[in-house]
Design goal:
Layout lengths: L2 H12 L1 H20 L3 H20 L3 H8 L10 E4 L2 E4 L4 E3 L1
Antiparallel strand pairs: 1-2, 2-3
Helix pairs in contact: 1-2
Length: 97
Amino acid sequence: MNTFQIYEEFRDSLGEPAARALAHRLGAMFNELRDAVTKEDFRGLRESIDADVSRLDSAGGEEKRESVSRGPGPGRPCGMTRGPTGYQFSGGRHIVS
């Protein structure tokens, strides 16, 4: 996103401070949207995790699954667990599926 172009376009009609603020805000919003996870991305992540958990369960890996659900650390590469209402990260953040 070309925020300078936005600034240039609105500078005369809004004034310099307002045009600068608008361009700055739109640039920040664009960056946030660019970094956001889409529902499709999250669905793919969930399916991948479900497949990994199923593979661990079928291999008799209850101990391995427990180490994954406790959170990141030595021998615990992922801090994400699945609950009845969605996924819970070890940091306490909750995402509803």
